[in-house]
Write a structure and sequence with these properties.
By secondary structure, chain A is of the alpha/beta class. Chain A contains 12 helices and 14 strands. Helices cover 33% and strands 21% of the residues of chain A. In chain A, helix 2 (38-46) packs parallel to helix 3 (61-68) and helix 3 (61-68) packs parallel to helix 4 (89-97). The model of chain A has no long low-confidence stretch (mean pLDDT 97). The radius of gyration of chain B is 18 Å and the shape is globular. The chains are: A alpha/beta (303), B alpha/beta (263).
Chain lengths: 303, 263
């Protein structure tokens, strides 16, 4: 019997980012400090992308970098800060300058908007946001949310519009070259977000043999049917964390937070760690193996 | 058994606030918390009166038994000996909106006298002075958990007559408003600050002084409150932490990440 042809979806990080045109709408994966596609954010900055609209629940340094570099012009989000440290420094400045527009939802609302997009329905109902300014204060959407009386029960619900972004960008633990994705630890809203995108780019810490995936298919959270491209990207969430792989580099994150309080500080950070290093590999070389090895997860701890 | 209360000189205000928070968690309850002081309060509750409390973090960690202090709600530290690691649709949707969460802890940049919360903008929406982190899961939690505990610092500019932005619903504009609006959860039950604890008058749903922290005067509370606070005739002093609670707190956060040690 002929061996089944295994489709190879692997491309490089640079080529993956080249696919994203200016003005594109992106689902942005990861949640809080966990598995943000940092390397993809850096490369978007290096390739000087502009006017992107980003959809996500909660993001931190990744979103702050995209806003600081003026790669993103519109956000539809629930939360951003540098958790445990302070407010997102670049976002504060860019709001005042008017270069970023933010539409506020809740985490559940955003997660359901992705689920709605993935399901192919135009909106989703939920019981959050009722009675609040999130319903009435609208920044740029023609329509943001709508309170409706349920036709079956008479109960009040909020309808939020589904999202079908041009691209979904996620950073996963493992993927095979066909695009079967496994994620250790929490999934945040990545499972729905990945399925909502018209094209899906999966970055992963490891590319594993498809037999590894097929020996434990119950661990696959995104089957290859949804996935367009796969990028091998070890340490791709640095300086944030990946469950079972590495911890965050708190010293670096604090340095970022302090330095980016001023425009000059941000410009210096952007040059030192993003634009003057030519690639993700070069960034890792700059950080150095010694520092990275200290962050490696120490089993049985996932950090 | 007699409790061995600590002397007020032996603990800091943050330690007292953490102990107050922990007392709001009953054994066996499903608890929704974020990082910061609520995280410490929940860890303390599990080590004292509520070992069977199930702590849920919105990012997807369920029944966490973390032993190290997490800085992010999605921190891998929270995965240690958790029973499940799933995602937001699970925690905020199925678990919370589905009606399984007993008590949620949230912070607030501003609250008003009905316990409505702002975590989005300071200043005008059109031209804000400060952009705060936003709702995150805060609005979801406050909308749908059976009870809500708010932990915040007590300042005049934070306890206001009118919020700059209403992010999460307390009792909105009074009795019956939550029900009329279609909200599922029971609304706020307690506000823990660095000066006192406040609950809500069952008739008017307005905020009411419940206990005063040791060493704090009524005048001090009034001076630091921007809305009209209901003050009952008799207001007890907040129950002091026990020596055991303090010792446990110091083992939970040995490096003082959320509760810096007293000098």
């Amino acid at each position: 019997m002929a061996e089944t042809a295994v489709e190879d979806k692997r491309i490089t990080l640079k080529d993956a980012v080249k696919l994203v045109p200016d003005g594109a709408h992106l689902f942005w994966g990861g949640f809080g400090f966990q598995r943000p596609p940092m390397a993809f954010a850096h490369e978007l900055v290096r390739q000087k992308k502009q006017n992107l609209t980003i959809y996500t629940c909660g993001s931190e340094m990744d979103l702050d970098i995209l806003v600081g570099a003026k790669v993103a012009s519109h956000l539809e989000v629930a939360f951003y800060a540098i958790e445990g440290i302070g407010l997102a420094p670049n976002v504060q400045r860019r709001i005042k300058e008017g270069t970023i527009q933010i539409e506020d939802y809740t985490n559940l609302a955003m997660a359901l908007r992705f689920l709605g997009g993935a399901l192919g329905v135009p909106f989703m109902p939920l019981k959050s946001m009722l009675g609040t300014d999130m319903l009435t204060k609208i920044r740029f959407r023609p329509k943001k949310a709508e309170v409706m009386t349920c036709p079956f029960t008479g109960e009040k619900v909020v309808l939020v519009p589904s999202v079908r972004p041009d691209f979904s960008i996620i950073h996963a633990s493992r993927v095979d070259k066909e695009g079967n994705v496994q994620i250790d630890g929490i999934k945040g809203e990545d499972v729905e977000g990945a399925r909502a995108g018209k094209k899906v780019i999966v970055l992963a810490e490891e590319i594993v043999d498809t037999e590894f995936i097929r020996a434990q298919p119950d661990q696959t959270v995104i089957p290859n049917i949804y996935v367009t491209h796969v990028v091998e990207c070890p340490w791709g969430s640095y300086p944030m964390m990946v469950y079972n792989y590495y911890d965050y580099d708190m010293e670096h994150i604090r340095m970022y937070y302090e330095q980016c309080k001023t425009e000059e500080g941000w410009q210096k950070y952007c040059s030192d760690y993003i634009t003057s290093v030519g690639s993700h590999t070069e960034l890792l070389q700059k950080i150095g193996i010694e520092r990275l090895m200290k962050l490696k997860a120490k089993k049985p701890f996932p950090y | 058994m007699n409790k061995k209360y600590a002397n007020p000189k032996e603990f800091t205000t943050l330690e007292l606030m953490a102990v107050c928070g922990s007392k709001q968690i009953k054994n066996g309850e499903v608890v929704f918390i974020g990082t910061g002081l609520p995280l410490i309060a929940a860890m303390l509750a599990k080590k004292t009166h509520a070992p069977k409390a199930k702590i849920v973090y919105e990012a997807g960690f369920i029944d966490s038994n973390a032993i190290d202090i997490a800085l992010s709600i999605a921190d891998s530290r929270l995965g240690y000996r958790a029973s499940a690691a799933i995602g937001l649709i699970e925690t905020l949707g199925l678990m919370l909106q589905g009606g399984h969460v007993d008590v949620g802890f949230v912070g607030a940049a501003q609250i008003d006298e009905y316990g409505n919360i702002n975590t989005t903008y300071i200043g005008n929406f059109e031209n804000p002075i400060v952009r705060l982190p936003g709702s995150g899961g805060g609005n979801d939690i406050v909308s749908s958990a059976k009870r809500i505990v708010i932990i915040m610092t007590h300042e005049k500019r934070k306890t206001v007559k009118k919020l700059d932005y209403l992010t999460s619903p307390g009792f909105l504009n009074g009795p019956g408003a939550r029900e009329k609006t279609g909200l599922l959860g029971g609304g706020p039950s307690l506000v823990v600050t660095n000066l006192c604890q406040m609950d809500f008058d069952p008739e008017t749903k307005r905020i009411r002084l419940a206990t005063i922290h040791p060493g704090v005067s009524l005048q001090q509370i009034q001076e630091n409150t921007g809305f009209d606070l209901i003050i009952p005739e008799k207001v007890p002093t907040t129950e002091l932490p026990t020596r055991e609670e303090l010792n446990l707190l110091r083992t939970i956060d040995p490096h003082g990440i959320y509760i810096p040690r007293a000098k």
